[in-house]
Write a structure and sequence with these properties.
alpha/beta; six-stranded mixed beta sheet; 13 strands; globular; binds ribulose-5-phosphate
């Protein structure tokens, strides 16, 4: 099976968790794109979604699924999103698709976080995937120097601007042994908007697509 087929399997399994849910958050990425396609069948039950990116918003609207502003929606029942890496504590690295800031906001505003991924994303230690850090453009070089002090090798994601008008540094070679501590440390650097470590608010359920079926970790 291809990686994309495994992503689709995880997305299919997620449908079970959103049956009867009227208000949900929607992440960003190729796994979530499968989920959005499948969600169209349940759209009669859905009062609204809150989307984490312009890309997901466009897909939702094209399928006739209502998209709300988070300020109007209030607390969400469940947030469904992918991950670039997830560890056995359900802590994640996210932001490969650049939507980390809105993803973290919606994760915080949701009662449950359902992470969907193919099994290759399940890792013992976070950090092999370059860690995305969204920064205010004028702070890019300064934050990059701070990342070097932390042992990483930052690379500017050139020709890319986030939905919030900011830049992204992809930080290579970090072995993230204490994800909540590193999340706090990087969050506290002036100019950092969001770091792609999702440890202070980890996932609640992880669905991993594998050739043998779905591994549901709870
Ligand atoms: C986007 C993300 C995605 O969840 C992450 O990049 C996984 O993407 P995919 O489902 O395409 O593998 O954090 O900002």
């Amino acid at each position: 099976m291809t990686q994309d087929e495994l992503k689709k399997k995880a997305a299919e399994a997620a449908l079970e968790y959103v049956k009867g849910v009227t208000l949900l958050g929607i992440g960003t990425g190729s796994t979530v794109n499968h989920f959005i396609e499948l969600l169209a069948d349940l759209k009669g039950d859905i009062e609204g979604t809150v989307s984490s990116s312009e890309g997901s918003t466009k897909r939702l609207k094209e399928l006739g699924i209502p998209v709300l502003d988070l300020n109007a929606a209030g607390e969400l029942e469940i947030y469904v999103d992918g991950a670039d890496e997830v560890n056995p504590h359900f802590q994640m690295v996210k932001g490969g698709g650049g939507a980390l800031t809105r993803e973290k906001i919606i994760a915080g505003a949701s009662r449950k976080f359902l992470c969907i991924a193919d099994e290759s994303k399940y890792v013992p230690v976070l950090g092999k995937f370059p860690l995305p850090v969204e920064v205010i453009p004028m702070a890019r070089s300064y934050v990059a120097r701070e990342m070097v002090k932390l042992g990483g090798q930052p690379q500017w994601r050139e020709n890319y601007v986030t939905d919030n008008g900011n830049h992204i540094l992809d930080v290579h070679n970090l072995e993230i042994l204490d994800p909540p501590a590193l999340e706090r440390t990087i969050n506290n650097i002036p100019g950092v908007v969001t770091v792609g470590i999702f440890a202070l608010r980890p996932a609640d359920i992880v669905l991993l697509g594998s050739p043998d079926g779905i591994r549901a970790l709870k």
